[in-house]
Amino acid sequence: MSKLLVKGGNRLEGSIRVKGAKNSVLPILAATVLNGGINVIHDIPNLSDVKLMIKILKSIGCSVKKEGNTVIVDSSKLNNYEIPEDLVREMRSSIVFLGSVLTRCGKVQISYPGGCELGPRPIDLHLKALREMGATIKEEHGFLLCDLKNKLQGTEIQLDFPSVGATENIMLAAVFAEGTTIIRNAAREPEIQDLQTFINQMGGKVTGAGSATISIEGVNKNKLKDVEHRIIPDRIVAGTYLIAAAITRGDVILNNIIPEHIQSTLFKLREAGSTIISSKNSIRIIAPQNIRAIEAIRTMPYPGFPTDMQSQMMTLMAISDGITIFKENIFENRYKHANELTRMNANIKIDGRVAIVKGVKELSGATVSANDLRGGASLILAGLAADGQTIIENSKHVYRGYDNIDGDLNNVGAEIVRI
Ligand code: UD1
Questions:
Q1: What is the pLDDT of residues 126-138, one digit of tens each?
Q2: What pLDDT shows up at residue 3?
Q3: CA-to-CA distance for 66 and 374, rounded, in angstroms?
Q4: How confident is the model at residue 113 (pLDDT cuts 50, 70, 90)?
Q5: Choice between 333 and 279, residue whose per-residue pLDDT is larger
Q6: pLDDT tens readout for residues 190-247
Q7: Structural domain boundaries of the chain?
Q8: CATH of the structural domain 3-19+233-418, one choice from 3.40.50.790, 3.40.50.150, 3.65.10.10, 3.90.230.10
Q9: Residue 55 binned pLDDT confidence (cut-offs 50, 70, 90)
Q10: CA torsion, points 271, 277, 279, 283, in degrees to nearest 10?
């Protein structure tokens, strides 16, 4: 079993460079199949989720080379529209191949991704939209078989919820559709904008990403170009490192970040008493001695407070000077870290989607278990602040989304060891 040992009590001081965003890389890797050409992507983090995406690309006939943090995908020999079931089961976000392979091959077979550690994760919005665009989708024996009689047709799609994955799948599917596809109530996440940039560099015609209405004008398949692209910095990794600084009463500078992408987190960190100094591509955080409780944290689609930062912020509030109420509005089963934090002396009560956190003076080191990616990161943060040593079991979850978190934090004064 993968484990991390964290020695608590060290103040973090220094600077860290943030790497490319996982949630941008995954759809962009899926988009590399569109042009049947050679695409060069820079600043790809070294993550187990990225390795799985590359395995999928290879399994459908693409050749993929990795040179440091650059990945080169040649999709000219793509010859398979069946996405291997075992790989899809390992990574739910591989569902983003649905749109890109369908539009490239006219067909795709992918296993139904099912739920995950965050609770049920339906894809009804993805499927409804593709059907509205003219795809025939059969759901049989746990597989989705999607077929096109003719080209996909541009149409107006109204999402019931601004789903990140559904917005991405529709954008990918619509690149070669007949006419214009309009997505209303689209997800507005920065990673959607990065996908728009990538598709447009290829010769696609997407506008509006970042707003609630995205428009994709279908283009001719044979007119797409090769692309060289740099992935945007990971706003969730940045937020996690800012909390690492705050929880250790540290003073840390993060480089290679886009402050605008993490405004909701910065706002909450200021409310907790931190001093934040932002410039164009960096942020300095100077933590207070006394962490103030924030009245309420409600997770929301971007630009609201991200669900992917909820567990880390809960760890910070666990040692605040008062009571904080959390409401998780995106995923129904996203409080598993709370039980583990309680083992470390945190005072947290859960009732459905609400968590009430009463700050304690100090967390105490314990053996805890990571149940999911961000929850695992929140336990590392707890370990940094705790008295004594913390052992985090199942730390492999964390490596899905953090490239060298132990190395990055150790460089600014933490003591984290992989055991
Ligand atoms: C993406 C991110 C994930 C992040 C999440 C929310 C990637 C690879 N993953 O996940 O890290 O935590 O956004 O910011 O980018 N829903 C439906 N039907 C659907 C699709 C979604 O009901 O067809 C619901 C989900 O159950 C959930 C909510 O919509 O309650 C948000 O899901 P969505 O935005 O789609 O998240 P993901 O794309 O899965």
A1: 999 999 999 999 9
A2: 97
A3: 26
A4: confident
A5: 279
A6: 999 999 999 999 999 999 999 999 999 999 988 899 999 999 999 999 999 999 999 9
A7: 3-19+233-418, 22-230
A8: 3.65.10.10
A9: very high
A10: -80
Is 62 a residue of the active site? no
Two tokens, residue 61: 């006939």
Confidence band, pLDDT 50/70/90 cuts, at residue 116: low
Whether 47 is in the pocket of ligand 1, judged by its Cβ within 6 Å, is no
Ligand 1 binding pocket includes 43 (Cβ within 6 Å): no
Identify the H or E element spanning 17: strand 13-17
* Interval 304-328 mean pLDDT: 98
Q: Which residues lie below 8 Å from residue 22, measured CB to CB, with a gap of 6+?
A: 45, 47, 49, 50, 234, 236, 400, 401
Residue of 62, 105, 116, 146 with catalytic role: 116
For the chain, the straight-line distance linking the first and the last C-alpha, in angstroms and rounded, comes to 9
Whether residue 93 has its Cβ less than 6 Å from ligand 1: yes
User: Does ligand 1 come within 6 angstroms of the Cβ of 374?
Assistant: no
Ligand 1 atom at shortest distance from the alpha carbon of 308: 12
Return the amino acid letter for 408. Answer: D
How many CB atoms lie under 10 A from the CB of residue 89?
A: 15
Q: Which fold has domain 22-230?
A: UDP-n-acetylglucosamine1-carboxyvinyl-transferase; Chain (3.65.10)
Helix axes 124-132, 97-105, angle to 10 degrees: 20
Pocket test for ligand 1, best of 25, 161, 402 (most atoms within 8 A of CB): 161
Name the phi and psi angles at 110, rounded to 5.
Answer: -145, 145
- Tell me, what's the pLDDT at 114? 62
For ligand 1, atom 21, which residue shows the shortest CA distance?
163
Q: Is 371 exposed, middle or buried (0-12, 13-18, 19+ CB in 10 A)?
A: buried
